[in-house]
Structures are given as structure tokens and as C-alpha cells.
Amino acid sequence: MSKMDNLRAMREARYAEAQKRAGSAPARPKAAKAPVAPAAPKTVETRVEEATGDDLCGHRNISGRSCTREKGHPQKSHRYS
User: Fold this and answer.
1) Spans of biased composition, class Low complexity (predicted)?
2) What is the dihedral angle through the alpha carbons of 40, 43, 48, 51, rounded to the nearest 10 degrees?
3) What confidence tens digit (pLDDT) does each residue in 29-70 have?
4) Among 16-20, 22-26, 50-54, which is the least confidently predicted range?
5) CA–CA distance, 47 with 73 (Å, rounded to integer)
């Protein structure tokens, strides 16, 4: 047998074994998940209160500079220094 024939035979054997395991496995009932309430969005006042002192965003750009805005800032852009 050639190398490709051996690979094909191994692949078919694995497929047959997987099919056999899938057919004989007992069906497990899915656990019911409790609905999760969405978190309330933070207001600007809450974010400002959280950003006290050295509590900065810390986002890093490609060159390694860190964002100097407060943590959780609402702006989409960052200020790097």
C-alpha cells in the first residue's frame, strides 16, 4: 500500500469509530439555564466616581503607550502619552 492509501484507511477507520461512538452515546438532557438580567449601564457620574486618582484606562497601543483617560471612559478614542 502506498502512503496515501494508508492515510485514507486511517481516516476512514477514525470516521467509522466516531460514528459508532456517536450512535451509542446516550442522549443527555440539556440543563435549563436561568435567565440572566442585563446589567444596568453605568452613568457618567458612576464612571467618574470610579476613576479616582491613578485609576487610568491603561489601554495600550501598538508602540506600548498607555491611555491617560480615566478607567471606563465613554469616549471611543484613547489619549496616549
Assistant:
1) 25-42
2) 20
3) 777 777 777 776 666 555 555 544 568 887 888 888 888 888
4) 50-54
5) 7
pTM, whole model, 2 decimals?
0.32
| Structural contact between residues 78 and 65, judged by C-beta atoms closer than 8 angstroms | no
Helices (H) then strands (E): counts for the chain: 2, 0
Instruction: Identify any residues that bridge with 60 across adjacent strands, giving them in sequence order.
Output: 66
Rounded CA separation 57/74 (Å) = 11
> Strand, helix or coil at 66?
strand
